[in-house]
């Protein structure tokens, strides 16, 4: 009798277990469907620019399936677009923990570190992303070109210009339409006095994006440094026409006018540059020199002192100090 009771008890337990498993299994398709619905809805709201709502939908999907790396990756992108960079990094950390061989997660986290001025972490992530890219991607894979560009950007932001130049060049070889890479490489060429090469890159950038004010400004600056004043004026005028808020274009044109001994026009442009960007040490340095030419040394000293207070460039600071010393010793 006892044996029979035990058998009945065990059968009941087995039946309950079967029922429980069956119930769980029957809920799985419904749970998966709801997760996909939340993801698709999140994707839709991202496309519509409704990022807060998209984040809510992705969060619902994560609550249903907290071990799916792709959902964290999608939410990190929404956070990034929404300007919530720290939260985007947190989601990419989770993405990488769940899917450590996902190169785009390292790439995007590296970009975020660039934006947060953490270049060492950015370079580390970009290197990892490119390691995966070299192993997994074809030579013409656009993701690889993007990784090269972002790697260049990371080195550029910490002043490693020659290393950055190499990465920008690799990116441009794979993705010749990448205007941003042409612009950055031209900036490095200008800093290194390679003005003809800068102009070549800027010609290509302008051909691809003829309404890009920054390209005309940089090309105008290159012409200025080569002594081609008429070409410089033409480019800088075009830059200002395309973007009247571009303070650097007024600054550069003001310096061209100074070199042409058109001092009143120079002051007018430099006044505008300072109004648009009151933190521009270079504009004050240039205007101070114009005031010297106009016979206003006391006004010039004020501009040179402001230059020193604002500048984080040793060369600009030294030049302003030399001008003050020269005036005071006259």
Radius of gyration: 30 Å
Helix run count = 17
User: How big a fraction of the residues is strand?
Assistant: under 5%
Overall mean pLDDT stands at 87
Give a quick account of the main beta sheet: strands, pairing sense, barrel closure: none
Tell me, briefly, the overall form: elongated
Q: Quick one: how many beta strands?
A: 0
> Which segments are poorly predicted (pLDDT under 50) over 5 or more consecutive residues?
21-26, 136-141
Main structural class: mainly alpha
Q: What is the helix fraction of residues, given as a range?
A: over 70%
SSE arrangement, N to C: HHHHHHHHHHHHHHHHH
Cα distance spanning the termini: 121 Å
Give an account of the 3D structure:
Helix content is 82%, strand content 0%. It is mostly helical and 330 residues long. Helix 2 runs antiparallel to helix 3, helix 8 runs antiparallel to helix 9 and helix 9 runs antiparallel to helix 10. The longest helix is centred in the first third of the chain and has 46 residues. The protein is elongated and about 120 Å long. The relative contact order is 0.04. About 4% of the residues have low confidence.
């Amino acid at each position: 009798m006892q044996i029979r009771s035990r058998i009945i008890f065990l059968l009941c337990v087995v039946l309950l277990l079967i029922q429980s498993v069956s119930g769980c299994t029957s809920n799985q398709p419904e749970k998966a469907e709801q997760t996909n619905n939340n993801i698709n809805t999140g994707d839709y709201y991202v496309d519509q620019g409704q990022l807060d709502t998209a984040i809510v939908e992705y969060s619902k999907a994560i609550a249903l399936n907290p071990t799916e790396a792709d959902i964290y990756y999608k939410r990190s992108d929404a956070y990034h677009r929404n300007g919530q960079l720290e939260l985007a990094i947190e989601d990419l950390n989770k993405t990488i923990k769940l899917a450590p061989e996902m190169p785009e997660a390292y790439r995007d986290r590296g970009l975020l570190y660039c934006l947060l001025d953490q270049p060492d972490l950015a370079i580390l992530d970009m290197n990892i992303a490119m390691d995966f890219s070299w192993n997994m991607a074809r030579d013409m894979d656009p993701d690889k070109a993007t990784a090269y560009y972002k790697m260049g950007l990371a080195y550029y932001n910490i002043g490693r210009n020659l290393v950055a130049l190499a990465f920008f060049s690799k990116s441009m070889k794979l993705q010749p339409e990448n205007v941003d890479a042409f612009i950055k490489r031209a900036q490095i060429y200008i800093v290194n006095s390679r003005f003809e090469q800068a102009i070549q890159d800027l010609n290509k950038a302008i051909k691809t994006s003829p309404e890009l004010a920054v390209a005309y400004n940089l090309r105008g600056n290159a012409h200025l440094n080569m002594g081609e004043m008429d070409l410089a004026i033409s480019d800088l005028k075009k830059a200002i026409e395309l973007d009247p808020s571009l303070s650097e274009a007024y600054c550069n044109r003001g310096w061209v006018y100074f070199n042409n001994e058109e001092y009143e026009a120079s002051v007018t442009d430099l006044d505008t540059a300072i109004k648009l960007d009151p933190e521009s040490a270079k504009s004050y340095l240039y205007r101070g020199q114009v005031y010297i030419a106009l016979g206003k040394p006391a006004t010039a000293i004020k501009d040179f002192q402001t230059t020193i207070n604002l500048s984080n460039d040793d060369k600009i600071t030294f030049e302003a100090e030399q001008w003050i010393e020269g005036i005071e010793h006259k």
